[in-house]
Design brief:
Chain A: This is Zinc transport system permease protein. The complex is a heterodimer of chains A (299) and B (254). With 299 residues, chain A is an all-alpha fold. Chain A contains 13 helices and no strands. Chain A is globular, with a radius of gyration of 21 Å. Chain B has helices at 47-54, 98-103, 118-130, 146-158, 176-191, 230-235, 246-253, and strands at residues 9-18, 21-31, 36-41, 62-67, 70-71, 81-84, 164-168, 195-200, 212-217, 220-225. The chains are: A mainly alpha (299), B alpha/beta (254).
Chain lengths: 299, 254
């Protein structure tokens, strides 16, 4: 394997940027998956396109306008969700189409921007990461990761059982907003690496991979962060050596890990079943109990 | 009661509407310190709604709810309250161990962003032991039986070291062993001076520790006093069936 391409600064910046995003994205994603909002990253990614276009129009850095616009979008979704005014998937649909359409029209209005620029945001442009971009990625990525790790027990409580969290005095509203804003920041940071259309993969796929065999939440979270690093690192290396698009390669690596784990867990389960045909203790512990025959209608 | 006149739970003229439908019609409920009160009634009688509104989880459309003398919207001392919902929040597929779920109950005593102290971990272990799940602490909650999951939720409430325990149908769909474990834990808490308010369809092994029963029917309190004798209540017009005959009760009320 010819790794000489990593002698270039731009390739090293790409690799470091990808690794940071690889850690940060699943640390947020684990809470989104737990809240059954796995696709929210996609919705916010679409909104980010409008943010990028606003940056082009105003002649400022698209990353910062995208951060502002996605935070506004994420807070709006959270408010809609909290009030229960629209179901989650309808809110997402509004964002998907509004965000993409707004972005494409606005980019069309800005002078001298080609489809190539649009493509670089939709599918990532890791190798064009400048030293300044890398600094932004590092600061925001570290901020997101530290917040998620430090607030893990509280965010876990809110995502797992919001009602119970409320009567535990956990600041539910604040934490939901924080999670929305953090998701927005992560999406904007990661759009440089994997692109807005593939962003959700990095938030969700490593978590889904861990879910297949992990027994606890903490293990799932840190395991997913580790898998995110592995996918990001190997994706950039393979893309660099084979001259392939790094963003898509990172996502394929993450999916490859998912399939690998799925196969291994299936084999292990099968082996356990054939080697240990009867395990009465386990059977008793998991034996189904009669379901409640009725839900309290008032509840 | 003499030295502490502030009731842990007080709902005054509580009215709750779901849409246009009134579920509670001006209910008054006052639970005194150290009491063990059971809310009984058929499905749809409003008993779950009443305890949820007493905690602020369901918004009152009329009247007022207070916890330890403070109106619920301004109540902050949540570590004094241990809430046991009907069931574990809908699983999303992200696994969580029994200990992780129980630890969430300790958050009302922790400072946001600071790590758990030794004492926090100790209390969580004690709560696990109290419900007999210490040996399952590292197992995913989804691998437990319904009764064991219910015990997990009770351990989570105990982890706050609460003065008031509010339980929503803790015995529904729970095996006999878990019902006994629950009764033991609760009588322990009551002996320690804790106040208990629970919703039940049938009391079963909990009956000896209940010293007051409040029966709801169609959003109104129809009985407040000792646990009603099934035969006697049966004889009255508009009786409310509260004794453990789940099958019969279903026919009566659904």
């Amino acid at each position: 394997m010819d790794l000489s391409i990593f002698g270039y600064d731009f390739m090293m910046r790409a690799l470091i940027g990808a690794l940071i995003i690889g850690v940060a994205a699943p640390s947020v994603g684990v809470f989104l998956v737990q809240k059954r909002m796995a696709l929210i990253g996609d919705g916010i990614g679409h909104v980010a396109l409008t943010g990028v276009a606003v940056g082009f129009l105003m002649g400022t850095s698209p990353v910062w306008t995208a951060v502002v616009v996605t935070i506004v979008g994420a807070v709006a979704i959270e408010l809609i969700r909290e009030r229960g005014k629209a179901s989650g998937d309808v809110a997402l649909a509004l964002l998907f189409y509004g965000g993409i359409a707004g972005g494409v029209v606005l980019i069309g209005m800005s002078a001298g921007k080609s489809n190539a620029t649009l493509m670089s945001y939709l599918f990532g442009s890791l190798v064009t990461t400048s030293a300044e971009d890398l600094r932004t990625i590092a600061i925001l990525g570290a901020l997101v990761t530290v917040l998620m790790v430090v607030l893990r027990p509280w965010l876990f409580a809110v995502s797992q059982d919001e009602e119970y969290a409320k009567v535990s005095g956990v600041p539910v509203r604040f934490l939901n907003m924080l999670l929305a804003v953090t998701t927005a920041v992560t999406v904007t940071v990661a759009m440089r690496a994997v692109g807005l259309l593939l962003i959700s993969a990095l938030l969700v796929v490593p978590v889904a991979t861990m879910q297949q065999f992990a027994r606890g939440f903490t293990v799932t979270m840190f395991g997913a962060m580790g898998l995110g690093v592995v996918a990001a690192g190997s994706g950039v290396v393979v893309a660099g050596v084979g001259d392939l698009p790094p963003g898509a390669m990172i996502v394929l690596m993450a999916l490859g890990l998912f399939v690998l784990v799925a196969v291994v867990t299936a084999v292990v389960k099968l082996a356990r079943r054939t080697l240990l045909p009867t395990r009465p203790a386990t059977v008793a512990a998991t034996a189904p109990e009669p379901l409640d025959c009725h839900l309290d209608k008032a509840a | 009661m003499a030295e502490n006149d502030v009731p842990p739970v007080a709902v005054t003229h509580g009215v709750v509407h779901y849409g246009d439908r009134a579920v509670l019609h001006g209910v008054d409920l006052r639970v005194e310190t150290g009491q063990a009160v059971a809310l009984l009634g058929a499905n749809g009688s409003g008993k779950s709604t009443l305890i949820k509104s007493s905690l602020g989880l369901v918004r009152l459309t009329g009247g007022e709810a207070a916890l330890f003398g403070t109106p619920v919207p301004r109540f902050r001392a949540w570590h004094r309250v241990g809430y046991v919902p009907q069931r574990l929040g809908a699983g999303s597929g992200v696994p969580a161990t029994v200990r992780e779920v129980v630890s969430a109950g300790r958050l009302s005593r922790r400072v946001l962003g600071l790590p758990a102290r030794k004492r926090d971990r100790l209390i969580v272990e004690r709560a696990l032991e109290a419900v007999g799940l210490a040996d399952r602490a590292k197992d995913p909650v989804t691998s437990l039986s319904g009764g064991q999951q219910q015990r997990t939720l009770i351990a989570r409430a105990l982890a706050a070291e609460p003065e008031l325990l509010v339980l929503d149908e803790p015995t529904a769909g729970v095996d006999a062993a878990s019902q006994e474990a629950l009764a033991a834990v609760l009588s322990d808490r009551v002996a320690d001076g804790a106040t208990v308010l629970l919703v039940a369809h049938e009391l079963g092994p909990l009956e000896p520790l209940i010293d007051r029963a409040v029966v709801l029917s169609h959003g109104r309190i129809v009985h407040d006093g000792p646990v009603p004798e099934p035969a006697g209540v049966h004889a009255e017009p508009g009786h409310v069936h509260v004794h453990p005959h789940a099958k019969e009760e279903e026919r009566l009320w659904t």
